[in-house]
Amino acid sequence: MNYRENFSTNIRKLRKERNMTTRALADILGITNQAVSLLELSKRSPSFEVLCAMADYFDVSLDNMVGRNDNPDSHKL
Question: Against a cut of 0.70, is the pTM above it?
C-alpha cells in the first residue's frame, strides 16, 4: 500500500468513526464535498494545508494520516 492509499483509508475511517458525512468534513476543511470524495477514493492527493488541517481536526499526527505510524498520539509530547 502506498501513502495515498493509506491516507484515503485513514481519512475515511476517521470520518466514519465520528459519524460525519463527506459534506460535513468538507465544510470544516473549506473544500468541496467532491474533493473529500476524491481524497477518499485515492484519486487526489491533499494539499499540505488540507493535510495539516485534517490532522489537526482529527488530532492525529501527519505520519498517522499517511500510514507511516499506527499511533495517532505520536505527535503529542
Answer: yes
